[in-house]
Amino acid sequence: MSDEKPAASGAGSAEDLTHTDESGDVQMVDVGAKPDSSRRAVARGEIRLTPETIAAVEADAVEKGDVLATARIGAVQAVKHTWETIPMCHQIPITNVDTEFAVGDDRIELTVAVETTGKTGCEMEALEGVTTGLNTVWDMVKAAEKDADGNYPDTGITGVEVVEKRKERVEE
């Protein structure tokens, strides 16, 4: 059996790694020479909850407060601070953040759209918005989701993914 791992889709050789220098040290990519572009990224994910918890969220009857409003604030804050939590991530000017919740019988889906004009994309910001927004939902409802042993057998965050990425050159 081989110990070799298959290359990731679209991955090139070690020489093609953008966050590693010739000696293998991690570095931030220099984007200074790139032209500004209008960029948009959309990410989504969902949290599974018990139907009773969903009903409490919809009735605004969760003891900690308005779950979706708090999660929206958490998502936007995460977008704005992505560069502080993801190593080698550039600080970018966020021009817009949209958050959308879809509440189902046993889950809440969060979609976060991020827009910027600059030299690098904003998909990491969209992903950070989704994960922090969903983690905020979990934090707000965890008392209702715990079982007798203090575990969360019906709770889980899944399906976090980038669903759209767009880049259009800014005309000067």
Commentary on this structure:
This protein starts with about 35 loop residues before the first strand and ends with a strand. It has a 4-stranded antiparallel sheet, covered by helices on one side. It contains 4 helices and 4 strands. About 30% of the residues lie in helices and about 30% in strands. The chain is of the alpha+beta class and about 170 residues long. The N terminus is likely disordered. α2 runs antiparallel to α4. The chain has one domain: Molybdopterin cofactor biosynthesis C (MoaC) domain (Alpha-Beta Plaits), CATH 3.30.70.640. β2 and β3 form a beta hairpin. It is elongated. One of its GO terms (biological process) is Mo-molybdopterin cofactor biosynthetic process. It catalyses: (8S)-3',8-cyclo-7,8-dihydroguanosine 5'-triphosphate = cyclic pyranopterin phosphate + diphosphate. This is Probable cyclic pyranopterin monophosphate synthase.
Q: Tell me the number of structural domains.
A: 1
Number of β-strand runs? 4
CATH class: Alpha Beta
Low-confidence stretches: 1-9
Order of strands in the sheet with the most strands? Answer: 2-3-1-4
Distance between the termini: 56 Å
**Structural class estimated from helices and strands:** alpha+beta
| % residues in beta strands | 25-35%
Largest sheet: 4 strands, antiparallel
Active site: 139
Keywords: Lyase, Molybdenum cofactor biosynthesis
GO molecular function: cyclic pyranopterin monophosphate synthase activity
EC number: 4.6.1.17
